[in-house]
Amino acid sequence: MIQQPVSTPWQVPWPEGTIARYWTVAGATVDLTDNGRAGSRRYDTKCTGCPHEDSFKFEDSAHRQAQAHAERCRALPRPEVTP
Predict the structure, then answer these.
(1) Model-level pTM greater than 0.85?
(2) Residue 47 contacts by C-beta under 8 Å, 6 or more apart in sequence?
(3) Residue partners of 80: CB distance under 8 A and separation at least 6
(4) Residue 22, CB-side half-sphere exposure with 13 Å CA sphere
(5) Which pLDDT tens digit goes with each residue over 17-44?
(6) 11 Cβ contact list (under 8 Å, min separation 6)
(7) Beta 53-56 vs 18-23: how paired, if at all?
């Protein structure tokens, strides 16, 4: 029997600007990125399982929200589309 490798969030390259990654209960991730824009809404969160996205002025608020979403999101990771 051939075993298929199991992909984990640590094996997938982090998108540009990602400063933290939270693993959801279903295996997707919530990525926290610094978009580099000074001023309001500098930190973005995006779930790779469901359509949830948000932006925050303060990094600590973004971390808390990303963790909270990861703890309850049950959406499976969306497969990558290949051309």
Answers:
(1) no
(2) 24, 28, 29, 30, 53, 69, 70, 73, 75
(3) none
(4) 20
(5) 899 999 999 999 999 999 988 778 899 9
(6) none
(7) unpaired
